[in-house]
Amino acid sequence: MQKIGIIDLGSNTTRLIVMAYERGRCFRLIDEVSEAVRLAEGVGASRELKPEPIRRAVHALSMFDRLCRSTGVDEVVAVGTSAIREAVNQADFWTALRAATSLDLRIISAQEEAYYGFLGAANALGLRDGFTFDTGGGSTQVVAVENGRSTESFSVQAGVLRFTERYVNSDPISKRDLRELRAAAQQAFGALEWLKGKAGQRLVGMGGTVRTLARVDIKARNYPLDRVHAYTLTRAAVAAISEQLAQKTRREREQISGLKSDRADVTLAGAVIIEALMDHGSFSELMVSGQGLREGLFYAHFLAPSDPPLLEDPRGFSVRNLARLSHFQEAHCRKVAEISLSLFDQLSSVHGYGAWERDLLAQAALIHDIGVAVGYYDHHKHGEYLVHNSSLLGFSHRESIMLSALVRNHRKGFSDAAPYAAVLQPDDSTRIARLSALLRIAEYLERGKSQVVTGLRVELGNPMRIMVTATGDAQLEVWDASRRAGLFRKAYACDLEILLAPQA
Amino acid sequence: MQKIGIIDLGSNTTRLIVMAYERGRCFRLIDEVSEAVRLAEGVGASRELKPEPIRRAVHALSMFDRLCRSTGVDEVVAVGTSAIREAVNQADFWTALRAATSLDLRIISAQEEAYYGFLGAANALGLRDGFTFDTGGGSTQVVAVENGRSTESFSVQAGVLRFTERYVNSDPISKRDLRELRAAAQQAFGALEWLKGKAGQRLVGMGGTVRTLARVDIKARNYPLDRVHAYTLTRAAVAAISEQLAQKTRREREQISGLKSDRADVTLAGAVIIEALMDHGSFSELMVSGQGLREGLFYAHFLAPSDPPLLEDPRGFSVRNLARLSHFQEAHCRKVAEISLSLFDQLSSVHGYGAWERDLLAQAALIHDIGVAVGYYDHHKHGEYLVHNSSLLGFSHRESIMLSALVRNHRKGFSDAAPYAAVLQPDDSTRIARLSALLRIAEYLERGKSQVVTGLRVELGNPMRIMVTATGDAQLEVWDASRRAGLFRKAYACDLEILLAPQA
Fold this sequence. Notes:
2 copies of one chain form a homodimer.
Chain A: E1 2-9, E2 14-22, E3 26-35, H1 51-70, E4 75-80, H2 82-86, H3 90-100, E5 105-107, H4 110-125, E6 130-135, E7 140-146, E8 149-156, H5 160-167, H6 175-190, E9 203-206, H7 208-221, E10 232-234, H8 235-247, H9 250-253, H10 267-281, E11 285-288, H11 293-302, H12 314-325, H13 330-346, H14 348-351, H15 355-367, H16 379-389, H17 397-408, H18 428-444, E12 453-459, E13 464-470, H19 475-483, H20 486-492, E14 496-500
Parallel strand pairs in A: 1-4, 4-5, 6-9, 9-11, 13-14
Antiparallel strand pairs in A: 1-2, 2-3, 6-7, 7-8, 10-11, 12-13
């Protein structure tokens, strides 16, 4: 595998991620460091970077550079965004940087910044149409997406550090300051005609502020899944948080569950900016992307020369990625998928499910055994843990919980993911049972992992009958699948017989 | 890796385990099947195996054989124990077996059965002195262990299926039956002079009954760790369960939490047998081994030609085993261990800990990063999960929880494993904090994973100072270790400075 380091020097934070990858095939994050250097601190209207923030930023960058060199990173891509882009004294920064390190940092344009953010979010969430935004310390990038291409993009001078320094001069914020902050945020988006009145379209948000808002909302709602990526944040939730922040002193804000102390000062401005953006576009909700600029830079490299560098099928890609990195037994898993889908199709008049459920079942079949890497006993539960904690792309929270549940149920016992009921639909418990039952029968019809079963024919009725065709001796498979038919009987409320079809 | 299948045909259950291994180096369980065939059902005083149980057993064995063949197992070791050993009509069994499969099953003597059980338990728990027993369907094997060798062994005709069929003729059991059952159990161990009055010595129990009793006790006590291996079961707990079982009908017993329905009939007899054994030896507690006969057969093969085939250091072996199977970065982990132990030693007057804590710290250092295989973000938490769910050998529950906690804390945040407080000692929270703090400093002094730090000298005092010697540029390491010193400051209640020692 090759290793690439991606460094992003923002106005508030600088971060390094290191990806190990085989180009176009698979990748995984293997290192990450971040430091809140606040390069734009004290910049104000003069647009002059101050010496101490420069020193902090350069020190962090030189540490990142050292880390890349000592861990054998093959290539480093380092970019700087608005703070440095707009500075009148860039030269001071370059002088300090070159004195400390030979790191090759590139200042990217607001356009590029917006584009790479869009790439990160679109790959992570499977976004093909809608809008993305990335609220950083110095600016907010907004992109309109149509058919997987960014058709409009704009950088708005509304950043959380910039606005905090300009408008949040009292603790708690005074009414007057708050009014000015809100007015400035509204004004910032005013010119974006192409963003106006987009109710019903998808809006995806990136950046530390949006992740912080999601974390606070997750805690406040007792939402059962502690995961900001793909979390849906409503306009009402953002408004409630900004109101709460406006009323509290900084010290009181630090007590808010989900709000890290280094975000306690800047998040109010961030919430107000995001509210203004949502108002302008008439969006009632947004989806959080845990991936953004840095990952976008990575995808551009990883998927080159595709244009746009978007994964064709992010879900399928990341499930295969996970399967490969877990050293899955490919022939076995593909056969389990094949049998599962054959059962699914032949039972379609019974369950009435469609392409969405079929795809989930196929994905679950590919990774059903990955828990074996943890330990054989309870490997179905380990698999659930692994799927639950893998950064799969393109799955909603509901889909991700269902996928974990299918893996959990492929072998024995049963869980309908009840702790996550708030993420699911009321009939998902039945859906999980019915899909799991098919996966389990398929798994045991491939018990010997030798792809002996070549086909099957379902005879509907009660008892239901599965007639199995095999290339060789499939007694083991029929025996073990029959032993494991309990879940099927329950889920489909009928008896089940599994029989070897007479040889042709 | 090679693959070996181990099959054990008992009086109650027949099981197959498949191990993948490199001889003497590492292994992992990769498959397992069991079936409660109850071969000894209805045998009674006639000692004649009945046709239906023979049919069930042979069918299961032929399925196991097929599974081994279709999954590419290189070698199969299959053994039969008391049911078949004592049968007057062995020939009927052989005829049926040979008609169905070419599996080569070997009847082992009671001595061998006891010996392999001892091997399994001694390797799994690091037992060098004490006693082991294995209560099965037809008999109970007892072994005296001295200095890692079995010095006495005996097979007692007290088995759960045998005793249930003979004495449990009423539901709930009548007073008279219970009296006879107890008397028979006591009598069974009466002749074992070498087992008498061994209060204070270690007693290790194996088999489905002892695991069932542990599971019931775990549920009844709300013990926070749902793990029977290395669980301590007191004489009082066994007595309480046997009393409870004696008062209930079979249907009522099935409601007992932790008692599987296929164990609801035979566990009373099992509990009475184990009580009698504990009484005879004056043992106030026993430790459950999750490994026994099958694993013992495996170790004999895996460790050959060692005599006895015992791992010299089961804990160290299994931690290295886990590290290797997780593709750990060996040089990095060894350096983290080295730095951790150097800090531990130089701070010994401050923490006052000894060899036990030192060993835990060293083990945790070797596997601190294994969670990266799940995902980089939160890999410390994934590592905790992996350690918690790995079948590590020779660790008590307390040690295992502490080891997981150290891995959990190597990077950021802090957990003192509070949910497992009932498994820990009152001062373990402090112990975990102090050891974790050392591991974390060591991890960041090896941030670049390039073994740049070659030595360190601790200057005690407040602030405490760590003077770092390095072969090259260790600024990254000193910077990141300094950023992560918060836990150290808290755990040792003093300030900490980490400095590069002036070059010699």
